[in-house]
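Obj: model holo form, ligand = iron/sulfur cluster.
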Amino acid sequence: MPVTFNIIPDEYRLATDADLTERILSRKSELGDKLVVLTHHYQRKEIFALGDCAGDSYALAKTASQHGAEHIVFCGVHFMAESADILTKRYQKVYLPNPLAGCPMADMAGIGDVLHAWDILTNALPGAKIIPISYVNSTADVKAFVGKNGGTTCTSSSAVKAFEWGFKRGEKIFFFPDEHLGTNTSNKHGIPKDQIAIWDYADPKLGGNSVDDLKRARAILWKGYCHVHTTFRTEHIEQTRKRYPGVKIVVHPECPEAVVNAADADGSTSYIVDYVTKAPPGSVIAIGTEINLVDRLAHTFPDKQIYELSGNTCAMCVNMYRTTLNDLAWCLENLESVPKIEVPEEIARDARIALERMLEIQG
Ligand code: 13P
Ligand code: SF4
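Output (holo structure tokens):
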């Protein structure tokens, strides 16, 4: 039995997987249309199997915004559930079955640091029109800052369009928190290297740039990263190509630039699922993303050879992995008393502007 969040009662902690699954299914049928269970592609397979709608962060935000269920149980991480709460109506309640499931990358751009950086940038570049764009992997108050300052949020599947949108409205984009998604998106826009500045939030002096660097830059990228996707390296691609001639390599755009450039394709988790689904039987595909998705694809398509790209490291998002059957059963059987995700309205109001822009831009 997996180790689980220790506040849940022993009744759930000690139950068998078979018992928990049965209880979850029975609670789901009891609640019917009043409930929807959303699952991100990185969830454990036993949780994924119990979801009603699966998707990448964009698809799940869109589903949450359109679904009428009173109870939205989000099997994902904290920023996803926050976005769902911001996008849903007042009568709807959003739950994160394991409240400890966060995203370390989202926490790399704290609102204090973002406001400080914005002050420095706007003082260093007087009169420049800078459009802030935040990856959805960010806290609600950061999204609110973006909404208030004429920007938008984006996901990995909408980043290219979000940059296009930003460049129509301003001369520079300030993107946070993922340097790698920012770099890969800038490359897709053909922005030359000397027009990309990296903003090191730990460096008090212009984020490690000169005023000239910032004046020249079209994209200013926060120096945040996902520890799961930065484990992939170009050596993994070279070794994989040698070992499996003809292999196709598909990676997530949170991977470093060199990895994305050396791969055959890159895209969001839904893009990766689609890529594998459409590949003909017999295809050999190595995937650079979180292990639970790779593992599920390998089991779903036994007629294709699916490999995890690094081959020797375990690219696992421990936060996505936190949600267990124990947590889900506890949450569903105690909807009245378990903690809900509730973003205060004064933050939600501006964050909603940024999220709704994202949905509009991507369509
Ligand atoms: P997707 O939007 O591609 O699902 O990515 C979410 C995420 O957190 C990737 O690490
Ligand atoms: Fe955050 Fe990386 Fe986990 Fe995605 S995989 S939720 S970016 S830590």
